[in-house]
Amino acid sequence: MAARLAGLAVLLGLAARGPAPAGAAKMKVVEEPNTFGLNNPFLPQTSRLQPKRDPSPVSGPAHLSRLSGKCFSLVESTYKYELCPFHNVTQHEQTFRWNAYSGILGIWHEWEITNNTFRGMWMRDGDACQSRSRQSKVELTCGKSNRLAHVSEPSTCVYALTFETPLVCHPHSLLVYPTLPTALQQRWDQLEQDLADELITAQGYEKLLRAIFEDAGYLKTSEPSESAQQEGTKGLRFETLESCQEAYKALSQEIKRLQGMLTQHGVPYRKSAETPSSEHWGPQTPTAGIAEPLRGDPGLRGETL
Ligand SMILES: *[C@@H]1O[C@H](CO)[C@@H](O)[C@H](O)[C@H]1NC(C)=O
Ligand SMILES: *[C@@H]1O[C@H](CO)[C@@H](O)[C@H](O)[C@H]1NC(C)=O
């Protein structure tokens, strides 16, 4: 109740200053006058910026590490965006409304790497957005000075930032290989050799290359759900004991059915892999010819019956 009264006092205080000038909505506010949303002690704790986790360590090209600890802002329409490379991206509504929105659009997570080149910085785990977290991809492009040049939202709650800096103007400034420690460079060399010798597939190459980038700290280990899907184990996981027992029952019945078919055709088989020396089943004594391992269509064996 006291807080509500206090909030009302703030509103009345604002009203007492009179209506805002007509052009105020379009005015670009470049300084930091808006502390109502951020530091207003009457606001509930949840409306202040609360990062979900610490940023990842600074990584990548050494000459970019000097950007760490600095912040660059851009005012676009009624929002001020702030990029702190290797730390975070935030958004601050430029209004004197008592509940002005401020939010975290991402916390420094990992690099995006394609074609041996650092393509962008991913800032993830920002404030909640529907069921996901806001995230931002920061693209580094060559420019005369350090400047947050552009912000857009290509898909819901995924933001694209363009950061201009003289630090990436040299054509080799974003290459990955030269930034790696010798041991990882040697692993990469070996990988190229193995690919050339066709000892690994292109797919295997991509996977092993990713592991090198992960070991370097440039990429973070992918989500468990993703890797589980990659390994194709998704369908083999059981949510409950009940569904596991049902699957077991179904498999047991399938084994019985297959055993029945083998028996019907007089094909010998072993009861299970654990008892390789167990006796053959079946009503007929197998001949030497049938005892060899099965390959292909059991129908071919019709002539031996
Ligand atoms: C964003 O990063 C800057 C620079 O390190 C830091 O001062 C600020 O507290 C961070 N903001 C949030 C909401 O974490
Ligand atoms: C990959 O990089 C090389 C040299 O850095 C360049 O010549 C080539 O066009 C790039 N390919 C793609 C698909 O970006």
UniProtKB/TrEMBL annotation:
An example GO biological process term is: carbohydrate phosphorylation
InterPro entries cross-referenced by the UniProt entry: DMAP1-bd (IPR010506), Gtb1-like (IPR039794), Man6P_isomerase_rcpt-bd_dom_sf (IPR009011), MRH_dom (IPR044865), OS9-like_dom (IPR012913)
Record-given protein name: N-acetylglucosamine-1-phosphotransferase subunit gamma
Q: Which organism is it from?
A: Moschus moschiferus
Quote the biased-composition stretches of kind Polar residues, using this chain's numbering: 38-49
Question: Which function does this protein serve?
Answer: Non-catalytic subunit of the N-acetylglucosamine-1-phosphotransferase complex, an enzyme that catalyzes the formation of mannose 6-phosphate (M6P) markers on high mannose type oligosaccharides in the Golgi apparatus. Binds and presents the high mannose glycans of the acceptor to the catalytic alpha and beta subunits (GNPTAB). Enhances the rate of N-acetylglucosamine-1-phosphate transfer to the oligosaccharides of acid hydrolase acceptors.
| A Gene Ontology term for the protein's cellular component | UDP-N-acetylglucosamine-lysosomal-enzyme N-acetylglucosaminephosphotransferase complex
According to the entry, every stretch annotated as the MRH domain falls at: 69-171
Instruction: Look up the signal peptide feature and give its range.
Output: 1-24
| Comp. bias (Basic and acidic residues) | 294-305
User: Which superkingdom?
Assistant: Eukaryota
Supply the PANTHER family for this chain: N-ACETYLGLUCOSAMINE-1-PHOSPHOTRANSFERASE SUBUNIT GAMMA, N-LINKED OLIGOSACCHARIDE PROCESSING
Keyword Nucleotide-binding attached: no
Q: Where is this region: Disordered?
A: 38-63, 266-305
**Keywords, A to Z?**
Disulfide bond, Glycoprotein, Golgi apparatus, Secreted, Signal
User: Record keywords: Secreted included?
Assistant: yes
Which SMART domains did the record assign?
A: DMAP_binding (SM01137)
How it assembles, according to the record, is: Homodimer; disulfide-linked. Hexamer of two alpha (GNPTAB), two beta (GNPTAB) and two gamma (GNPTG) subunits; disulfide-linked. The alpha and/or the beta subunits of the enzyme constitute the catalytic subunits.
Where does the record say this protein resides? Golgi apparatus; Secreted
